[in-house]
């Protein structure tokens, strides 16, 4: 049986959308903001998965955590590209070096996601 997401989860998604829309017009060239928004989106997706499922195994939690962790830098790059495309001032808001630095975070994000997935599995068994 699949459950409906809680109201707080829906509200958190709406708050994320408002934060994303508020971030777009600023001339912000720091990658940490995009990484923070991407991490929040991936955490939201993970919580949505957790709330809407009655049970999950250790392996599915590890896989979901690892995938969400690895997806965080990729989503950050997507957000950076959207921001650069919408500004359209003839040059990108983010340099190629910044994009490569964010791409280099994929293994770290995957490891953090695996640890979080393991923690979720351990918490669910108690």
Structure characterization notes:
The chain has helices at 7-23, 31-52, 58-87, 96-103, 106-125. By secondary structure, it is mainly α. It has one domain (30-125). The two termini are 22 Å apart. The model has no long low-confidence stretch (mean pLDDT 87).
Please report the total strand number as a whole number: 0
Oligomer: single chain
Determine the number of helices (DSSP H or I, runs of at least 4 residues): 5
User: Could you give a short account of the major beta sheet?
Assistant: none
Task: State which percent range the strand residues make up.
Answer: under 5%
Distance between the termini: 22 Å
Radius of gyration from CA coordinates: 16 Å
Query: What are the segments in which pLDDT stays under 50 over at least 5 consecutive residues?
Result: none
Q: What's the number of domains?
A: 1
Reading the helices and strands in chain order gives: HHHHH
List the helices and strands and how they pair.
Blueprint: H1 7-23, H2 31-52, H3 58-87, H4 96-103, H5 106-125
Helix pairs in contact: 1-2, 2-3, 3-5
Task: Name a few traits of the molecule.
single chain; 126 residues; mainly alpha; 5 helices; 77% helix; 0% strand
In short:
The model has no long low-confidence stretch (mean pLDDT 87).
